[in-house]
Design goal:
Structural class: mainly alpha
Radius of gyration: 27 Å
Helix content: 55-70%
Distance between the termini: 75 Å
Order of helices and strands: HHHHHHHHHHHHHHHHHHHH
Strand content: under 5%
Shape: globular
Number of helices: 20
Largest sheet: none
């Protein structure tokens, strides 16, 4: 009996010492990582400080074992240097699933720096798995509304906040390394038109590679110049030697010109909305829209609502006046001014 007591006394201090280990930033292994850890390690060249400079790997392991709390595991993921996450995700399938899980539930702001630094091979593996699950759910009719588009789903929400340069880099990886032009093309619509027009040059794509990239849009290729009218001449030039595609594209000139006119009109409406201090801004918007044909005016209102420049009630009110159904609504003077400009 005395012998057992002696052993307990000897072991306890060692266990306590291990439990109280702290990383290079001074954070205990059992505590959540603070929000500035990633910046701290980047600035301190943590790789030169020894194996135990960062405990993110251990924290993630202990979360899987049920030892660490959710906040410890989640913050370890959010603050871990990119190579730690890559190492952890390649050790086991469950490790990969955990990284993918934390990525999907974290807000875009929480994972922005992680995605910016993440290796494209890991990002590709994660997004392809998410896409496979999304397709399965869509087939089973478990996704509805805006989530019928993968990039509108919660798992992919972080893409909308990424800079064009990061998206372009990922597209290049999909196209060249993975030879996956269809998946690469899914991300073209996330970028501003200025980036799209210079994409081939900025990525150093050969003409054949850029053609292959846009072929990845498949049937959506013919919708693309309607979304981005400025890309239309470039697509005509790219597919000038492909009779089938070129013939279809060449018949779209009128649609593209109409979309360009709608975009110009939308900008005019936004200029009016910017002067929201005026009490009659609704009336001024209506006056301008009445100079257009009815269908164009209604389309512009739909665009403004989709981009959150106006609310549903404002769209309904203005649409009613344009359609001649204004008697169903109260007058402008009694409506609050809630136009938003972004």
């Amino acid at each position: 009996m005395p012998r057992i007591c002696v052993i307990a006394v000897i072991l306890f201090p060692e266990n306590k010492r291990q439990q109280e280990r702290t990383c290079l930033a001074g954070v205990s292994e059992s505590k959540p990582c603070p929000g500035n850890c990633r910046d701290f390690y980047r600035e301190s060249n943590w790789n030169d400080s020894g194996e135990q400079a960062c405990f993110a790997f251990e924290k993630l392991e202990k979360f899987l074992e049920g030892v660490s709390s959710f906040s410890v595991g989640a913050t370890a993921f959010q603050q871990a240097p990119a190579d730690i996450l890559e190492n952890f995700s390649t050790r086991s399938e469950i490790g990969f699933d955990l990284v993918r899980y934390f990525l999907s539930i974290s807000s875009p702001d929480q994972v922005m720096s992680t995605i910016l630094e993440m290796d494209d091979s890991l990002l590709y593996r994660i997004v392809k798995e998410d896409f496979k699950i999304f397709q399965k759910l869509r087939k089973e009719k478990k996704v509805f509304g805006t989530e019928t588009n993968f990039l509108d789903s919660k798992a992919a929400q972080f893409w909308n906040g990424l800079p064009p340069e990061r998206i372009s880099k990922f597209i290049l990886f999909c196209l060249r390394t993975k030879k996956d032009n269809i998946f690469a093309a899914r991300f073209l619509g996330l970028m501003p038109i200025e980036t799209l027009l210079m994409l081939g040059e900025s990525l150093g794509l050969k003409r054949e590679e850029e053609i292959e990239l846009y072929r990845g849009l498949e049937d959506s290729l013919y919708e693309f110049p309607i979304r981005f009218p400025a890309i239309y001449p470039h697509l005509l030039e790219l597919f000038s030697e492909d009779p089938e595609i070129n013939i279809i594209l060449s018949t779209m000139e009128g649609l593209v010109e109409r979309k360009e006119s709608l975009l110009r009109a939308r900008e005019e409406v936004l200029k009016i909305i910017e002067e929201a201090h005026k009490k009659n801004s609704h009336q001024e918007v209506l006056n301008y829209l009445n100079t257009l044909d009815k269908d164009a005016a209604l389309e512009i209102l739909g665009m403004l609502e989709e981009q959150n420049h106006i609310g549903f009630s404002e769209k309904s009110l203005l649409s009613a006046y344009i359609k001649g159904e204004e008697s169903d609504f109260i007058t402008f003077g009694k409506r609050p001014q809630v136009f938003r400009v972004k």
